[in-house]
Here is the input.
Amino acid sequence: MIVDLNPAGENVLGISRQRARGQSLLQLVDDEPEMREILARVAASGEHYANEMRLAPTEVHPDERVVDCHASPVQIDNASVLVEINDVTRRSQISRENALLIQHGAGRQMIRQLAHEIKNPLGGIRGAAQLLERQLGEQELREYTDVVISETDRLAGLVDTLLGPGGPPNKRAVNIHELVEYVIRIIEAEDLPYLTIRRDYDPGLPEINLDRDQMVQAFLNLVRNAATALEGHGTITLRSRAVTNFTIGDVRHRVIASIEVEDDGPGIPFDLQDSVFYPLVTSRPEGTGLGLPAAQEMISRHNGLIEFESRPGRTVFFVRIPLEQETSGD
Here is the structure.
């Protein structure tokens, strides 16, 4: 039970000092199991314990938070345990963003080298199959060369996807909401009657200099991934916000656009969460594992970043794009 609370604790827990006195700390943090374990250890052993943990969203704090929690035995008036909670959400996010940037750079270099190694012999294979087809008189035998040619073309298309769009982005002033609505129309045309799409836009977002085709493809990959995760049954929420003083990599931006693609599906398997932006990583047997790395590549061409958080019932991909973009002629 809480005996006393300082102003920082009021902010973290979202409750006033007066109201907090006599209330259960565990109830205020949604009975967080790690918090319960730390308090039990301190009470049982009389030793200091510390751990990093995640606090679930509340009415006061709508987003999940990462905190450092340190519990110590004390003898101050009626108190026997001192609990110090430090919100390190932004620090954790910056570390995660840097890890995503490193992952994207390594994945891009690896896949480009691999794609070039694959693409070089494909033309030779296709040409040889076409020459062989001309020499074959029987239609039954030509079916085999047709398979070789079609599979070669399929692999060539896969390699082109791996390599991504060539040349610098063709940036022009774009209304990000019009662009997202265009993506929604494409998804709605795919006949998913049990899929609900909700919108929560910030009307104050200005136009941004973007390559429209690349951005459409990036958002289409994200929304289609969400629809696939839901198997056509569920809700996708598209949300836009302006965020000030946001750091991407080692660059601090005065203001960015944050476009969120949220679904209420089963979530990304925990063992894949550290590698989803690597090419060919997928949890679906029919998936190629190229949608997310391709989207990350196209957003990175706009000095942006895609990050995510996922748990069962809520997965959100955040597309962070600086508002200040150079035009194609700059």
The chain has a mean pLDDT of 81. The chain has three domains: 7-87, 91-163, 172-322. Residues 198 and 237 are 5 Å apart (CA to CA). The chain is about 45% helix and 25% strand.
